[in-house]
Amino acid sequence: MYRQLLEQHIEVNALREPAVQELKEPEKPTPISEKEQIKPQMEKHTVVEKPGKITEKKSTSSEKENASPSDPIAQKIVDETSRLSDRQREILQKTFTTIEQDCVRNGLKIFVRLFSEYPRYKLIWPQFRAIPDSSLMNAVELRRHASVYLKGLGKIIESMRDEEELRKSMSRIALAHIKWNVQRNHVIHMIEPVLEVVKECNGYQLDEETRQAWTVLYQVIANLIEVFRCRALNE
Q1: What is the pLDDT of residue 45?
Q2: Which end of the chain is more exposed for a tag (fewer CB within 10 A), N or C?
Q3: Sign of the CA dihedral 107, 109, 112, 116?
Q4: What is the pLDDT of residues 16-40, one digit of tens each?
Q5: Which pTM value belongs to this model?
Q6: CA gyration radius for the chain?
Q7: For residues 194-223, average pLDDT
Q8: Which CATH code, of 1.20.120.430, 1.10.490.10, 3.40.50.620, 2.60.120.1440, is assigned to 73-233?
Q9: Chain-centre distance of CA 213, in angstroms?
């Protein structure tokens, strides 16, 4: 029923988007007195060997990446995002380019297909509950949500080349879904509707490599939602 309504009634116009630290003057070196200049070299070595005078070596970026985060949540985020290979990230960026050209319409297609398979999922979002099924497809609330949804997905895909930013984007998306009681299986069930839209927007071509890349992405999002849900329940 939802798919028929989409073909017969939905006419969507894309929503318009409303669109150095100051250098400190270097400190002047403290003049060295004549008495200090003539101190024996051995005395200098003695000062360096004192524990309080040894400067701690700073960790390099590579050392930080190899070190395990002390926060178990941070470690799980690292473990999940690391599942996406460089090739998969490249595929996601490439195939999303055509989808984001019409965020509203393509977002609607995803939710139409999701609700046609799982009608009760409409109740997850409070803004949809009072809207009759026959009117939901043309409701401004769903159009708005469809646009926000795909733009949020776009933020994740944009950050694919920046590991730290990707983890932050994933965490924000996961936390945002917890308040609506979106659970792991809800996200997993969106994979097929998303794949259908990916296929339509890319010349009706969907090879196994592309399917796997999008599947892993949604599995990672779903798993992170559960990670943050467990933390919230334990707090």
Answers
A1: 42
A2: C
A3: negative
A4: 444 333 333 444 444 444 444 444 4
A5: 0.69
A6: 26
A7: 96
A8: 1.10.490.10
A9: 15
